[in-house]
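Morning run. Coffee first, then this:
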Amino acid sequence: MALTPNSPSGTTPANSKDAAAQETFLREVDDALREDQLRKLLFTRGRPILALVIGGLVGLGGWLWYNDHQASLRDQQSEAFVTALDALQAGRNQTAKSGMDPLAKTGNPGYRAAVQITEAGIAEQAGKAADAAKLFAAVSADSALPGAYRDLATVREVSTNFDKLAPQTVIDRLKPLAVPGKPWFGSAGELVAMAYLKQNKTELAGALLASIAKDKAVPDTLRRRTRQLAGQLGVDAVENPAAAANGSEAQ
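And here it is:
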């Protein structure tokens, strides 16, 4: 049979149409199979995946809410504490105490320690030294509180009971804090120096007082006081004699 000139591949136009139709049909079948497989995948695994996505979104939302809530709570606590301190400075001790009591129950160790130390200070100012010492001792012994607060409470407790304590007891309790670089070096060191004087250890007392006087991290009032005490003990605690002389003339 002779081939049609317009069909170089030997395929008739009818066969070409059939092939095209078959290709289209196969493509549609393939698409249908893919769609069916996707539907089955979503049905069998879509729910766990969807639950996982929803769970992740809920968890993220909860985390964001918690952080925002905590920040708001910290702001409220800070404002309440500042308000209480303002009342304390104005002499309204009972108002200050009423404002601080809720902060001591928030669970925030920093505020709890600050409130307890402040309340101990209020008791001390009111002449209730024994009550103040007990409050300071409670903070000092509470291992859940930050170390800086506990150290401060230790210094204040010893200071409150200084006249009742043996000099060696003062030294044993405060010597670890009477070290340059420690937050309460000045206050603790001064008390240790006073205890040395009670033991007639003037050289140790003078050297420690001079060290405090030369430490620029110590408050100026304490530096001036310890410099004078060191001088009375025959220890030169002046870093710059010319500057000190000028300062004395200015006064």
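Residues 165-239 form one domain. Good start to the day.
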